[in-house]
Amino acid sequence: MMRQFPANPDLTVEEFELNMGPQHPSTHGVLRLVLTMDGERVVRCKPVVGYLHRSIEKMAENRTYTQVIPVTDRLDYCTSMTSNYVYVMAVEDLADITAPPRAQYIRVIMSELNRIASHLLWYGTFALEVGATTPFIYGFRDREKVLDLFESTCGARLLYNYLRIGGVSRDLPEDFCERMLAFLDEWEPLIREYEALLDENPIFYNRTKKVGILSPEAALTYGVSGPNLRASGMARDVRREEPYAVYPDLEFDIPVRTEGDVFARYRVRMEELRQSARILRQCAEKLPKGPFLEPQPLRLVLPEGETYVHLESPRGDIGCHLVSKGTDKPYRCKFRTPSFCHIEVFEHLVRDCLIPDIMAICASFDVVLPETDR
Amino acid sequence: MEPIFEQFVRDLTGGFQIPFWAPMLVSLGLVLAFIALNAMFMIWLERKICGRIQRRLGPMLTGPKAWARFSMWTGGWFQTPCDSVKLLLKEDIVPAQVDRFGFMLAPVLIFMAALAVYVPLPISSTAHGQPSPIVVAVADLDIGLLYVVAITTLTILAILTAGWASNNKYSLLGGMRAGVQILSYEIPMLFALMGPMVLAGSLSLGDLVLVQHAGLFGVPFLGWFLVPSFLGAVVYLICAVAETNRPPFDMPEAEQELVAGFSTEYTAMRFAMFYLAEFSNTFVVCMIFTAVFLGGWTLPGFVPPGSLNLGFFHLPYFDLLAGMAIFFAKAYAVVLLLMWIRWTFPRLRPDHLMTFGWKFLLPLSFLNLLICTVLAAVQQIYFGGNPG
User: Fold this and answer.
1) Domain map of chain B by residue range?
2) Which residue of A has its CA nearest to B353?
3) What is the pTM of this model?
C-alpha cells in the first residue's frame, strides 16, 4: 500500500512484505511469519504453519494402541513425557484401566521434571531472542542434569517412550530419589542466578514490560492456556481444576501475574520452576512401593467409544480425543495442542510492534512447532 | 613517527638518510599487521572470555595439545588463524541481484575506515635520541580527536552501503538501523569528548595524554580525565559500544531479528573484512578511551628513562617500550570490560537506544561539559594555564 509521507507530499511511503521464516534464526523451527512492514513497524502479521507436518494423527490410526506411544514422543520433543502421558491417559480412560499408585507418582515426577527441562530450554531460547547469549548456556547446563535423570530411568534423553498403558515401562532406578533431591538442592538456588541475569537488567525490563499485552478476554477467545494464560491473570491450571494422577495429594501454588505482557509470562514460568521443585520433593517423600505397571495384552483391544482427556503440559493444556471402534487400533486420535492456539495470537499481538518485539513476543509464548503441526 | 624512525635507522645503519616515503610505508605495514594480529588475538580472547562467563572452555582443540592440557587459557591458540584461512579459502559469492558496485565497495570502505583511524592514535612516547620527548603515533595530528570521530563515522556509511546494495530486506533493515542509530549516539559521544578537550585545551591526542600526566590542580593522581570527566567517560564508553555495533547495541546485525543484518549476503573475505573491521574498531575505541580518559601510556608519577642500562646490555628506547606496555595493558582492560558487557546484557531495541541517547546520554554529556569547563576555569585561574 502506498501512502503519502506526511511531512513531504512529494514522497510516498510504501509498505513491504517481510517473509520471516520458515528458515530464520529465531522462529523456533519452521514457523513462518508473513509480515507487512512499515519500516520497522509491523502492520500485519500472518503466521503460516504446516512446515513440520508429519501426520502423527494419521499414523496413529495405523498402529496398535501401544505402538502409538513412541509417535506421541515426536508430538513435542521438549516434553515427551507429557505427550506420552496425555495419550496413555486417554487409552486408560477408554479401557478403564487404572495405573498402580507407584506408577501414578512416577508419572507425576516425570511430568514435573519434564516441565523443568522444558522451562529451562524456554528460558535459554527466550533470553537468546531478546539478545542475551549467556542465559542460554545456563539454561542448557542445568537441563542436562534433568536429562541425566531421564537417561538413567528410561535410557533416552529426548524422546523417552517411557509411559505405558497401565503404568510405566520400567521402575525408577534405586537411587533415583536421592539423585533427584540432590539435583533439586543444587539447582533450586540457581533459579536466583537465572533471574539475576535478566530480572534486574533495565534493558531486559524495557524490552519485555508492556510489550505484547494479552488481555484475559483475548486469551480465552484464542484458547490460550498454561503459563501464558496465567500470566494474563487467569488462575487456570488443569492440575488444579481437573486433577489427574496424584495431583490432589500434592501441595503447590499456581503462579499468576495480571499484566499479561512478556515479562509476566517470563515471571510465571520462573515461579513454575520453583513449584515443580516443590512438587518433586513431595513426590520423593510420598512415593509408594509396589508394582510400577499393570501389564496389558500386547494387542490391547479397546471397547467402542470415545473420550477426551487433557492435562497440563509445560506449554499449556494438551488434550487427546481418542475414538475407538472396538479394534486394536485407534479409529481417530486427535491432539489438542496448546502451541497451535498460541501461534494464532501472534497475529493479534504483534500488530504495531517493532521487529525486536516480534521476537520477544513469539519467544515468550514458548511455541514448539512440531506440536503445532503434528 | 618520522623522527623516531629516522633516528632508529640512523642508529642502526650509521647515518643512512631514509627517503621521505619510507615512514609512511612502514607505518602502513605496521598498522596492517597490527590490525590482523590483534583482531585474531581479540577474537580468541573474546571466545575464551565468553566461555569463561558461560562456564565453557571455548576453543580448545586447535593448537598444541600439550598447552591445552595445562589450562583453558592456553588451549585453542590456533583457532583464529585456522578460521582466517578457512575464510580465505571460501568461495567469494556476489549474489546476482545485488548492486555490484556498492556490494563490493562496502567491505573496502569499512576496512579503509578501520585502517585510517589508527593515524593519530598515540601509543607511547620516547626521549631516546631526541631533543625533547616525542609522541609515538603514525602522525600526532593537531585535530586528532576530531579526526578519529569523523573517520569512525565512515563505518556507518559502509554498513549503510552494504545494507542497501545487498538487495535483501533484512540487510536493508540492518543498514537503516545503523543509519538511524548513528544520530542518537554520535552527538552525546562528541559532547562527552569535549570535556577532556576543554580540560586539555587541545584536540591532539598526544597533548591530551601529556596534560593528564601533568595532573590537575598540580595533583598527578587527579590527572586522568576519568576523574574530572567521569560522566564523560561513561557516556563515551556507552556510545563507543554503540558505534562498534557490539552487543548490547548490535541492532544492525541483530542475529535473532535480522538474521545477520547488513552482512547477511556476504561471504568469505568480504565478510571477514566486516568482522576484522568490527574487532579493529572495538580496539580503537578502547585505545581512544585509554588515551583520552586513562592517561594513555603514562602512569602517575612514573617517567621511564629513555634507555635502560642492564649492565651487560644497553636497552635503547626503554621509555617507548614501557609506554607501549602500559598503554596496551590499559586498552586491554577496557576491552575486557566491553567483553563482559557483551556477554551479560540483552540487546536494546532501536527506539530505546534513541530515547536513551537523546534523553539520557546527551544531558549527561552536557553536564559533564559544564563540570569540565568549571574545573578548567579553576585550573586556569588558580594554577595558571591549562594543566599541561
Assistant:
1) 93-383
2) A203
3) 0.84
